Write the structure tokens for this entry.
Amino acid sequence: MKGSSYSGLLERHNIHTSNVEHVVQSLQSAGIEVRVVRRGEYDEEVVRWADAIVSAGGDGTMLLVASKVLNKDKPVVGVNTDPERSEGHLCLPVRYTHAFPEALERLCRGEFRWLWRQRLRLHLEGTGINPTPVDLHEQQLSLEQHNRAHRISTVDRQQRAGALHPAYSKPSLLPVRSLNEIFIGESLSSRAQLKVFTPRLFLHRASYYEISVDGGPWEKQKSSGLSVCTGTGSKAWSYNINKLAEQSVEEVLRIGASQAGVELPLSREFLEKVTDDYNASLVFAPDEPRLFYSVREPISNRVFSSSRQRGFASKVCVRSRCWDACMVVDGGTSFEFNDGAIATVTVSEEDRLRTVLLDQ
Amino acid sequence: MKGSSYSGLLERHNIHTSNVEHVVQSLQSAGIEVRVVRRGEYDEEVVRWADAIVSAGGDGTMLLVASKVLNKDKPVVGVNTDPERSEGHLCLPVRYTHAFPEALERLCRGEFRWLWRQRLRLHLEGTGINPTPVDLHEQQLSLEQHNRAHRISTVDRQQRAGALHPAYSKPSLLPVRSLNEIFIGESLSSRAQLKVFTPRLFLHRASYYEISVDGGPWEKQKSSGLSVCTGTGSKAWSYNINKLAEQSVEEVLRIGASQAGVELPLSREFLEKVTDDYNASLVFAPDEPRLFYSVREPISNRVFSSSRQRGFASKVCVRSRCWDACMVVDGGTSFEFNDGAIATVTVSEEDRLRTVLLDQ
């Protein structure tokens, strides 16, 4: 991390603070009543009070801000007060960070469009317990505490693991909407396992689950996890999971050309173009009413095979066959997701987040 | 996991036990003195006592067995007593599991070749402390305990993080040899961070480090981690990190053909062949005296870029720029690897493991 020293962090914190000050004063100068709240004070009451919300931070802060805005009428504007560290994909162009009055002026004059960011909703069933979200930011939990926080039922794990069918509880709609992605995978603790079968992969225990896309047949899979993302999220973790390096593209084309007995012009320029086009196909617009699922590091062997590693859909169902897994929403909120539980991810128009795109 | 119920596990344990019995009796019937030790009792003394070692379990057990055999004269033979769950890549063909006397006979008659499995050695410097390996299998640690076990020095983290240069301690050769791979990445706890910059990615915090290949220039990288593997390990995790799905190969060829204005025969058969060839290029022979490094999910942005995502080499140096990272050897032993520490991975002939390849 650039400036990973303590003094470096302090410096960036000071820059952030003065950037926040600039935004607050610009708003107040324009006659707008402002309430400034820190991460820990930000809640539904604050959201209700506001006519609009300005997120002052990086992309991570935008995710946090959006997580409590479940109403598509409440505009959210992001200002990147930490440009050294955050790409600011979800924020206004970085030039407005020090010239916020200009942004305000455009907003007041209507020189902008609404940018609707489609989000995902999540139903959960078959756990037999009320799902309690664990906020990973607020609580600063150690992994042990994180796991304990999930364990709010005294149902015997062995009993649940032994069940052939999930407990027939109604699917409950979780009180979250994903702006980037929902990631499903094994948690990374090495808590009690039968000693004979101690998993040898501590930091990357394989995830076992079944997946059904758009109501299609269930398919068993084993992988490093499953990502289900939005258009917004297609530029985030999902992008890094799926993108190819020029080196890989070159090798595929070389083998393909050789196999087909044709000539391909494998110049640097050509390879760069093909690579960029391939990677661009992984990204889609924030307002598209669909989701994109991708399997991370699928493991194919005698038992498991995946037909498609990724694709677009309107609905994805996942049934956990994991010992100790969770679903993580936007890297910030997690839900227990163990053997038998079924998660359903869908796209609903009312789950869009209202953000702005200023005219050039 | 197939049979992830408690009764399923018990059944597999019983199968394992009877398979072990079969091997033991076969050896005793052949007049060979046998000592049977469990995981927890397996140590250097046992290895010294033995003329040869038979690993009875799956591939995970073979890794554990090999981890205490640092002498290339001691033959190790793997018998897959858990074929339902383990692929047994490191073991004898599965038909010998129930017909071990046949395997013994071939061994006694010399109807086999030595299969040398090249391993990797690891030097560590710049931590200012003696590196204590943490055995992740034996200790069944929670992640919190795992981190505590690493913290055997009271050197102030901030001081170390603030240092521009690593503490000048001599590089120490670690008492481990990697049979599959060394994986370097951020640990996955969310312990104390300055609240302003709480990392939003709990389960997949990016790893920051610098890498130098074969003595080349240092390059800053940000990714989901770095894998350095052997020929043996090239069929394990490294393979799953790097392999491509037919779907991806098809897309690359489609774009490449279109871009170049040529026709490629994108039949299922053709795509399967190209995909298989590509994936086969990721695998190399266990006895090859070289290592293969690959970057998992490289993150490219304004600050970081990777020239090559993977490649063969004789030596790889990695300098940590991580908050809380570790090096994990064969998924079983981990070492703290924080800001400033430098790991050097090399290939040495004396680090080969002596295993057998029975004649057909």
Q: What stands out?
A: Chain B touches chain A through 95 residues (CB under 8 Å). Residues 41 and 138 of chain B are 10 Å apart (CA to CA). Residues 6-29 of chain B form the longest helix (24 residues). Residues 139-146, 151-167, 189-203 of chain B have pLDDT under 50 and may be disordered.
